[in-house]
């Protein structure tokens, strides 16, 4: 079975002339010359990115998802290929409703009519990993039921094994490919896909995001109904809204698109800098707009997390970049430990300046945050910076948000929208607000310790006094032992002297 699948992959590589892409990527030119001699009759006028996209679509949904992930790795692949792969759509025919019913009844251990007051036979969405049906609980709550595609796990494992084999072959046959890290890319994809196979994890992501934005005037996140959830099933609140891509419909409903655009930027930076937890799959298919103008988030299979160090790094980079303080950008990379300490700051600063300075010939509203972050990553790679997976997710999400925001408002100035938020966050991290926040965070612990302080001080003093007494006793004991050893040596000396004198007297 695996051999047949591998044969099909090689055939599709040949049919779409993907071998030409490898040959063109050969820096030495030897592989290109060899390829042209062997396949002299093959010349494709179709752009390479289009051919790669069509090939992945032919290989099936798992390879489509791989192409989507690959489109985010703009630090590794050329822009024309990344742009084309970003067009891949994760849409596959739904599996039969009878299978969906059987899966749900096996999960709940009882007939579906005993679980839901109503269950819609036809799915509203279908993707490679799962599909969604609308239903109604017995208390009248409208819900969306996400069901894992039956038999998907073995298919995924099979295709992942093939991808890993192909990555190893690529590295063995084409050493220059190692700089693209094909095996690491496949491993990153495998981890992401395995996470998506656990709907409990997705439900937990949704619940966390909802808690972070409880009472928000900007974002609505569906409620999770945990009593109905499991590894293969997720039940959440049914959301009603207009797809954000339907611009004319939003206008007709009186939605303020400029406000919506700016609000999307604020939501993103709030997730990143306030929470360190962000929705990492914010493409238009996962976003609705409520009639009151708030965003509605869907599909929580992919999320990103950032540490305090990550957030500090990002904020310093963004602020320093727009102040043209390239030395600060270089130092931020070094302080984060993402480039080796032996890297010279002045050389790194010069490389960053060469990439960023031309951008400022354009109005700030025309500067792409996402592309700026990408250029920083690409430059840092030359200085041995290891790619940080969380920042790759962030860069992908930022590009999505940026593109979406400018689709809603072509005049969106992302910097002017984000700058106050970034400056406020930095002030909270480093200024008097940070001190106050830290005191507030420590206050409960101090409140617990203060009533015990006299007892703790008394115990500490008692322990110190007891230790002093023990030390005095140890010194006295040592002095007694030393005096005893001196007396013992004196007695032996007298005995030896007496014996010597007696021997001398008798010898006379």
Automatic annotation (TrEMBL):
- Reply yes or no: does the keyword S-adenosyl-L-methionine apply: no
Residue positions annotated to bind ATP are: 124-132, 146
Q: In which pathway does it act?
A: Cofactor biosynthesis; ubiquinone biosynthesis [regulation]
Q: Which Gene3D superfamilies match?
A: Transferase(Phosphotransferase) domain 1
Query: A GO BP term, please?
Result: regulation of ubiquinone biosynthetic process
Is Chaperone tagged as a keyword? Answer: no
State the membrane topology.
Single-pass membrane protein
**Sorted alphabetically, which Pfam families does this protein's record hold?**
ABC1
EC numbers, comma separated = 2.7.-.-
- Superkingdom of this entry's organism? Bacteria
Membrane-traversing stretches: 490-507
- Swiss-Prot/TrEMBL keywords: ATP-binding, Cell inner membrane, Cell membrane, Coiled coil, Kinase, Membrane, Nucleotide-binding, Transferase, Transmembrane, Transmembrane helix, Ubiquinone biosynthesis
Q: Which residues form the ABC1 atypical kinase-like domain?
A: 88-330
Ranges in a coiled coil? 461-488
Where are the active-site residues found? Answer: 281
Record's Gene Ontology CC terms? plasma membrane
Q: Which GO terms describe its molecular function?
A: ATP binding; protein kinase activity
Its subcellular locations are: Cell membrane
Matches recorded under InterPro entries: ABC1_dom, Kinase-like_dom_sf, UbiB, UbiB_bact, UbiB_kinase
Q: Which family does it belong to?
A: Belongs to the protein kinase superfamily. ADCK protein kinase family. Belongs to the ABC1 family. UbiB subfamily.
Biological role stated in the UniProt entry? Is probably a protein kinase regulator of UbiI activity which is involved in aerobic coenzyme Q (ubiquinone) biosynthesis.
Name recorded for this polypeptide = Probable protein kinase UbiB
Q: What is the originating organism of this protein?
A: Tepidiphilus thermophilus
Q: What is the lineage of its organism?
A: Bacteria, Pseudomonadati, Pseudomonadota, Hydrogenophilia, Hydrogenophilales
Gene from which the chain derives? ubiB
């Amino acid at each position: 079975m695996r051999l047949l699948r591998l044969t099909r992959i090689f055939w599709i590589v040949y049919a779409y002339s993907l071998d030409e892409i490898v040959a063109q990527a050969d820096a030495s030119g030897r592989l290109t010359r060899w390829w042209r001699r062997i396949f002299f009759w093959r010349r494709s006028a179709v752009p390479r990115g289009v051919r790669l996209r069509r090939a992945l679509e032919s290989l099936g949904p798992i390879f489509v998802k791989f192409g989507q992930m690959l489109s985010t790795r703009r630090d590794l692949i050329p822009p024309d290929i990344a742009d084309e792969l970003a067009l891949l759509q994760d849409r596959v025919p739904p599996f039969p409703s009878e299978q969906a019913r059987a899966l749900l009844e096996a999960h709940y251990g009882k007939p579906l009519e005993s679980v839901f007051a109503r269950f819609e036979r036809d799915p509203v969405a279908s993707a490679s990993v799962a599909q969604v049906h609308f239903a109604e609980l017995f208390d009248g709550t409208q819900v969306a039921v996400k069901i894992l595609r039956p038999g998907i796990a073995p298919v995924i494992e099979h295709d992942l094994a093939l991808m890993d084999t192909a990555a190893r072959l690529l590295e063995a046959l084409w050493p220059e490919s190692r700089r693209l890290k094909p095996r690491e890319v496949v491993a990153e994809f495998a981890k992401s896909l395995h996470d998506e196979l656990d709907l409990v994890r997705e439900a937990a992501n949704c619940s966390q995001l909802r808690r972070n934005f409880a009472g928000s005037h900007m974002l609505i996140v569906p409620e999770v109904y945990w009593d109905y959830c499991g590894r293969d099933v997720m039940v959440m609140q049914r959301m009603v809204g207009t797809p954000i891509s339907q611009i004319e419909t939003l206008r007709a409903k009186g939605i303020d698109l400029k406000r919506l655009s700016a609000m999307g930027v604020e939501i993103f930076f709030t997730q990143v800098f306030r929470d360190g937890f962000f929705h990492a799959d914010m493409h238009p298919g996962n976003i609705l707009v409520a009639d009151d103008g708030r965003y509605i988030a869907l599909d929580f299979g992919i999320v990103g997390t950032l540490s305090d160090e990550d957030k500090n790094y990002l904020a310093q980079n963004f602020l320093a970049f727009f102040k043209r303080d390239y030395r600060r950008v270089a130092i931020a990379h070094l302080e984060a430990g993402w480039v080796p300490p032996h890297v010279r700051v002045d050389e790194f600063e010069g490389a960053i300046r060469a990439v960023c300075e031309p951008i400022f010939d354009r109005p700030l509203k025309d500067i792409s945050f996402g592309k700026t972050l990408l250029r920083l990553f690409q430059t840092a790679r030359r200085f041995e910076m290891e790619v940080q997976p969380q920042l790759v997710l962030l860069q992908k999400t930022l590009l999505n948000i940026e593109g979406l925001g400018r689709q809603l408002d072509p005049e969106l100035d992302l910097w002017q929208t984000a700058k106050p938020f970034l400056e406020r966050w930095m002030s909270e991290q480093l200024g008097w607000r940070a001190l106050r926040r830290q005191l507030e965070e420590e206050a409960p612990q101090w409140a617990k310790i203060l009533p015990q302080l006299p007892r703790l001080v008394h115990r500490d003093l008692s322990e110190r006094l007891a230790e002093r007494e023990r030390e005095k006793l140890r010194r006295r004991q040592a002095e007694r032992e030393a005096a005893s050893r001196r007396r013992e040596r004196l007695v032996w000396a007298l005995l030896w002297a007496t014996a010597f004198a007696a021997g001398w007297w008798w010898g006379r």
